[in-house]
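Researcher: I'm preparing a figure for a lab meeting and need a structural model of a single chain. I don't have an experimental structure, so a prediction will have to do for now. The sequence is pasted below. Please return the structure as tokens so I can convert it later.
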Amino acid sequence: MTILDISSWWQAMPFFNKIFWVFALLFSILFLIQLVMSFIGGDGDVSAGDADEYVGGDDGIGYEFFTIKNLIAFFTVFGWTGIAGINGGLSKGLTIGLALLAGSLMVVMMAVLFRNMNKLRQSGTLQIKNAVGIIAETYLFIPAKRSGFGKIHIKVQGSLHELQAMTDDEEQIATGKLVKVTSVINDSILLVTSNLS
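Model: Understood. Here is the structure written out token by token.
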């Protein structure tokens, strides 16, 4: 197909059809640019006036509907669905309605997808309460009856940590002994016992 053929095709096309072709082509190109930027590490969700950034700080909603990504996805699907409706011989009203519905469904599907992806995200921050019930090894001896601090090596949330520990045991716990975490004293100190049962 030559440029002359494309020009003739475009000139012969009704205005209603041109609208959907403009949406489909323009937003498909933007979608491809966004996809390439995502793969090479660019920020594909550039917000107009940093509006997405401000909304993102609001804990009221976990997923924002009014982002550049969603706008591109909506109009890409809107355009191609409109073209399909026109080629299928649907009326103008039905074509517009179907295109709006398809674009909206795409945004809803993206919302569900990103919400579920956010649930999979794991924070690397240590939640010390997750250490309760775990067996650890004494790194520095722990004085008896909470008379001082010792240290333990413990694997919590998939990584090894060195944390301060105290004990209610009658005798000190020597270095290299296995201990069980029974509770959390505060945000940085664990209560342990040499009784592993």
